[in-house]
Design goal:
CATH class of the largest domain in chain A: Alpha Beta
Oligomer: homodimer
Strand content of chain A: 15-25%
Number of strands of chain A: 12
Structural class of chain A: alpha/beta
CATH superfamily of the largest domain in chain A: NAD(P)-binding Rossmann-like Domain
Number of helices of chain A: 11
CATH architecture of the largest domain in chain A: 3-Layer(aba) Sandwich
Largest sheet of chain A: 7 strands, parallel
Strand order of the largest sheet of chain A: 8-7-6-9-10-11-12
Shape of chain A: elongated
CATH topology of the largest domain in chain A: Rossmann fold
Helix content of chain A: 25-40%
Number of domains of chain A: 2
Chain lengths: 318, 318
């Protein structure tokens, strides 16, 4: 009998039931973390994991292992060499962060543009004042660094708010929901006169410290910069100086060079910076959406028909 | 020579120039309020106003007056009887509140759902905690009381967030961006199991205290109720008791039975109520959008061709 072992903690009971009912020819073993999964893994055909608990040794001793389902998008810690050597299929849940992250971006741009902090302060003080100027996000121009699934979902919502959307990517190729797309090399030329700059880039050699003081100098002094990709896209010092020098109006930061952001870091208190604790991708629906992709792929696995969703190219690692 | 008199304060210089340049056959006189406009009004063919400064006497003495352009949507203070008697055309800017109000609604639902107050508090305390549970607004169901221009714009944005939208109106007729529409009489039957209840109703005999305790009892205890229409849709006591009894999760209120909301009113401090000072319709673009409608209508007026936008039926008063 085919055996699926999961190291995912707190899989809801109804999901466990659902798998058991829908796949009667499979034995499911839901473990609470890798310690519990360590032994069962040795007999597993399929392993469900967040991808941070796999070592070459574990792969080696899991003699029947044919498929690793990673319930995450980041796979920095996967021992791909060993996995490839054993010819194991890897799939992940790439794309499921797009919806919460797009919500995060729109919600934070609204929060800053509509002066939510001031209104909340007024509420605390029982102060009825209609003075705070609430600019609309509708009709503005947004530039997105990266045109992947997350940026695309942000751009889709931005279009609903009647914004003009500009995408910047390695290829510069046109993509749905972007009015214009450019090459990263042309960033300096298109970054001016834009209301919102939204970054959802992964950390790669090409994106590390891609944004520099010179880019902020070209931005509009009314611009809001939002980073929810990786903290090493731009140094904190560059951001701090950019807002202090009035190069931009506000920075919304969900990711940092060091996380958690140290308690004494100056970003916390800077009035024109909003700090959130890397929450953009968090969603109560996360596990459900991930397990849905697993179920989809399990159907492909069992029937031998259809295509796996998010099959990983082991050489590239994504 | 045709004469246009405006009592609108602070019309931007570039707009004054634009009118002067585009309508060379018209004499424009831009006054700072009704005191300044009082005399010129007597010779005016067209009067531009927010609609709160007109008395039957002023209409009587304005012998040439043929058209009143109201740069507002509310016209409770217009002396319609006298206006009709003199056969004066009235147009207004109905519809221009839709965009800022729809932004307000989405922004407040995001603020509450994504725990913005808690995150802002954490930021103040330099606290890096990812514990606050941010529910998504995406995919929820929204019920809108009223299916007019404002509700429709909210529903349009809600659809972009992949929500199911239900409209409740006097006619119950289907409208774009509403998945389902019902009669007001059926409200009690459809108000349960809904994540968001959004009210943008005007104050009329039919809407006054339309919402009662019994409606809140039918709502989901996870529901967020948002009122940005008129404060007399539901009494503050009913709202206070509804949140205190846990009938709903949160109320977002931009309008109140008494405005400004008195400093000692219990709504200010209620944790599950968010108070904003009647700001949903405020937009820095307001005057520009209003003057655009005026310009459009002025073209109709001068050419005698086309239809007036927002021509008011004097008998109905809207």
């Amino acid at each position: 009998m085919m055996k699926v072992v999961s190291a995912i903690k707190r899989v809801p009971e109804d999901w466990k039931q659902r798998f058991q009912n829908r796949f009667e020819d499979i034995e499911f073993q839901f473990c609470h973390g890798i310690e519990e999964a360590e032994e069962p893994l040795k007999q597993a055909d399929v392993f469900v994991t967040y991808g941070e608990d796999l070592t070459p040794e574990r792969i080696q001793t899991a003699e029947n292992l044919k498929w690793i389902m990673v319930l995450s998008a980041g796979m920095d810690k996967m021992p791909f060499e060993k996995i490839e050597e054993k010819g194991i299929l890897v799939t992940n849940v790439r794309g499921i962060h797009a919806q919460p992250m797009a919500e995060y971006a729109i919600s934070m741009l609204l929060q800053v543009s509509r002066q939510a902090k001031t209104l909340i302060e007024q509420e605390k003080n029982h102060e009825w004042s209609r003075q705070p100027v609430m600019t609309e996000i509708s009709g503005q121009t947004m530039i997105l660094l990266g045109t992947g699934a997350i940026s695309q979902e942000v751009a889709r919502l931005a279009k609903a708010f009647r914004m003009k959307t500009i995408g910047v990517s390695k290829s510069g190729n046109p993509k749905e929901f972007f009015d214009e797309t450019y090459l990263v090399d042309d960033l300096s030329e298109v970054i001016g006169e834009v209301g919102f700059i939204v970054a959802a880039l992964p950390s790669t050699e090409e994106t590390r410290y891609l944004l520099k003081r010179e880019h902020f100098e070209k931005m509009s002094d009314k611009a809001i910069f939002l980073n929810m990709g990786r903290g090493d896209l731009v140094s904190s010092d560059v951001i701090l100086e950019a807002v202090r020098d009035g190069l931009i109006a506000h920075a919304v930061l969900d990711v940092f060079e060091t996380e958690p952001l140290p308690e004494k870091h100056p970003l916390w208190d800077e009035e024109r910076v909003t700090v959130t604790p890397h929450v953009s991708g968090i969603s109560p629906q996360y596990m459900g959406r991930g397990l849905e992709i697993f179920e989809e792929n399990l159907n492909v696995w069992m029937s031998g028909q259809g295509e796996y969703r998010n099959k990983i190219n082991l050489k590239r690692g994504y």
